[in-house]
């Protein structure tokens, strides 16, 4: 029996959230957390689910480690590009993560 795609996707995204939570809890155990991250990446690819930005920005696509500022991640701010320069401290790979500058429009 085939299950409806929407149901399967919602279960898969719940599992991705749970796996990300486990990976964050166990970020000090590099082997375990990278296994969780590799699994959630595989899930998202298999079910063609886009990872939420929150999760996508907190994992290293190269070594599958969880990026925790000060522990496994160094952050620099590049104001001109409105982006953070993320550098994974496990494998040294770098990426740019854009951010929005809050403006006080509601006055
Ligand atoms: Zn890395």
What's this entry about, in short?
Keywords: Cytoplasm, Endonuclease, Hydrolase, Metal-binding, Nuclease, tRNA processing, Zinc. The chain is built from three helices and three strands; from the N terminus they run αααβββ. The protein has helices at 5-25, 30-46, 53-56, and strands at residues 73-78, 83-88, 94-98.
Key words describing this protein structure:
107 residues; alpha+beta; three-stranded antiparallel beta sheet; 3 helices; 3 strands; globular; binds zinc ion; metal ion binding; tRNA processing
What's the total count of β strands? 3
Q: Unreliable segments (pLDDT under 50, ≥5 consecutive)? A: none
**Class from secondary-structure proportions:** alpha+beta
Reading the helices and strands in chain order gives HHHEEE
Radius of gyration: 16 Å
How much helicity do the residues have? 25-40%
Q: What percent strand?
A: 15-25%
Shape: globular
* Ions, cofactors and other bound molecules: zinc ion
Which whole number gives the mean pLDDT?
A: 91
The major β-sheet equals: 3 strands, antiparallel
Order of adjacent strands in the largest pleated sheet: 1-2-3
Number of helices: 3
Q: How many structural domains can be distinguished in the coordinates?
A: 1
Distance between the termini: 56 Å
Assembly state (oligomeric): single chain
């Amino acid at each position: 029996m085939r299950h409806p795609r929407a149901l399967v996707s919602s279960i898969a995204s719940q599992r991705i959230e749970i796996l990300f939570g486990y990976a964050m809890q166990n970020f000090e155990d590099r082997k375990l957390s990278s296994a969780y991250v590799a699994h959630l990446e595989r899930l998202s690819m298999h079910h063609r689910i886009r990872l939420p930005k929150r999760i996508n920005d907190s994992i290293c696509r190269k070594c599958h480690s969880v990026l925790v500022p000060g522990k496994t991640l160094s952050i620099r701010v590049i104001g001109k590009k409105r982006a953070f320069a993320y550098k994974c401290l496990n494998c040294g790979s770098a990426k740019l993560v854009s951010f929005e500058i809050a403006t006080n429009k509601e006055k």
